[in-house]
Batch of 2 targets.
Target 1
Amino acid sequence: MSFVTTKDGVDIFFKDWGPKNAQPIVFHHGWPLSSDDWDAQMLYFLAQGFRVIAHDRRGHGRSAQVDAGHDMDHYAADASAVAEHLDLRNAVHIGHSTGGGEVARYVARHGQPQGRVAKAVLVSAVPPLMLKTGSNPDGTPIEVFDGFRSALAANRAQFFLDVASGPFYGFNRAGAKVSQGVIDNWWRQGMMGGANAHYQGIKAFSETDQTEDLKAITVPTLVLQGDDDQVVPYKDAAVLQAKLVRNSTIKIYPGYPHGMLTTHADVINPDILAFIKS
């Protein structure tokens, strides 16, 4: 397995598939998952001739289960460590959910200043800010995230099962085509990671204000989300992202859930490919 060690001594696992002279696409996964959540995209874009890279966030998947650095600044710096280690240029960075926040901060603070980024894609992403505050009155109340923390601390295994079999993929909707394999794979990925990283990560994805990150992005950016996202409300996420990123294109998918990259990969993948080639 391939690892890079960050400046603060954390071993980050990554995958690197495809021709090393091809344009790289870097995938940033959501909470509490791993790079395995990108299987459908990595195989698709690999077949299209791209070089595909994905890493496990610190504390997640196969990366080191350290006790510190579970915040957006370290997430972005770790992603940069991978990009610098592989000397990726002209890269497309694609982030889902928490990974979308990671992409926004990486591109704004590392990728663009280093001249490494060509385009970005935010899918069901958390920026600019999930938490309800005085300046963000339409956000999600802190009590919701406190509930996440309580459920995780009480019984992480059951909590992860409930999320995967319910709101994440919209499997709680009437008439939904439920896949037990998808549920089991989400649970497997989650349980590979560390409880402490996942617990602290809730604060990272819900309370990090990334308004300035979005304003700083100048590369062409594609914003994608489903209007039946039960995890990240699209009006507080994709709609605002498209307003804040100056060079953005937005597409809202009717009825699609938070985990639409898995449930609707046959639609999402070609749309991302068209954007990359545009």
Target 2
Amino acid sequence: MSSARIFSLFIIFIFFLALPAQAKDMILKEPPQSLSKYYPPESKEPKWIQQMHKMSTHFGGVFVNLKEKDFENVDKHADKLVEEYKKTSEMVPEWEEYFDIKAAEAFAAAAKTHDMAKAGKASGGLGKTCGKCHAEQEVAVWTRFHWPSFRKIKVTDPISEKEMGFDDYMSQVSSSFKGVTVNFGEGQYDRSAKALKTFKSQFMELKSTCSKCHTTDDVKRFYVGEDADTAFAGLAKELNAEKPNPGKFWKNIGLLGKTGCKHCHLTHRTYSFIRETWEQK
């Protein structure tokens, strides 16, 4: 088999390792507490993910340099991979079973033969250890350490001027939204218009709430940007008309729901549900 063919197979192997685990392999439980010391706020740097990048770089470096016939750097990457792999295996005692030092050493030895086929074959044993850990822990780790806990977010309701938890605030927003749609469906346009003012005020307050995490200008208004402005203007126009147009009203409701509520929920809500389950223990 040509070296180019083997290298291509290696790239495919790495690609599939990065894909989400199959449903039958997926496990989702809260990561061990010992992992917390490798992430903020206990650690200034996300040391665990940095270790993952180090190992990935050295693993990939072996094959990149084998293809380029830079055997000096092949050997350097092979040795560094074993060094970082051993270091990582000692960081989280509860995950000791995910590591196979002999597999890492066997891969390094195969890489040092400078034979692409032997290195490719030996990578399989090492890849299984990485793949098993990713299948059982990666989603949980990303949920726990890379997504915020919405329970820690406080919002000041612009209507009551009271500070409340994020979940309670979203319930208020949902209630105001129903006031708009239910009253419109009943033909109570004046009540719907009144509820719209409350709903818009609460909904647009999320600009300041979202900006606590979404700090750049292009992201601050991702869920509450031009589409929301357009939808609210369209809703107000219909409710102030002598004879509101139901088609235009519901079109703007759909625009607001799809570009604002739905997009936010698709991005954040699953992780929020998982964290809430863990925090209720």
